Amino acid sequence: MIKTNNLTKTYRTGTINTVALANVSFEIKQGEFVAIMGPSGSGKSTLMHILGALDLPTSGEYFLDGQNVSQLTDDQLADIRNKKIGFIFQAYNLLPRTTALKNVILPMMYAGVSSEERIERAAKFLKKVGLENRMHHFSNQLSGGQQQRVAIARGLVMNPKILLADEPTGNIASEQAAEIMEVFQQLNQDGHTIVMITHEQEIAEYAQRIINLRDGKILQSED
Amino acid sequence: MDFLELLLESISTLTVNKMRTGLAALGIIIGIGSVITLIALGQASQKSVEEQIQSLGANLLTISPTAQVNQGIRGAAGTGITLSLEDAQAIQDSEIITTVKSVSPEYSGRLQVVAGRNNVNTQIIGVTPQYAEIRNVDLADGVFITEHNVQAQARVAVLGSQAAIDLFGEEVYPVGQTIRINGQVLRVVGITLSKGGTSFNNLDDAIFVPLSTAQRQLFGATHLTSIAVAALNPDVMALAQDQIGYLLLERRNISDPALADFSIFSQHDILDTASAVTGTFTTLLGGIAAISLLVGGIGIMNIMLVTVTERTREIGLRKALGAKKKVIITQFLVETVILTVVSGFTGMVLGIAGSYFISSAMNLPFVLSVRSMMLAIGVSGGIGVIFGWYPAQKAAKLQPIEALRYE
Question: Domain containing A153 — which CATH number?
Answer without folding.
Answer: 3.40.50.300
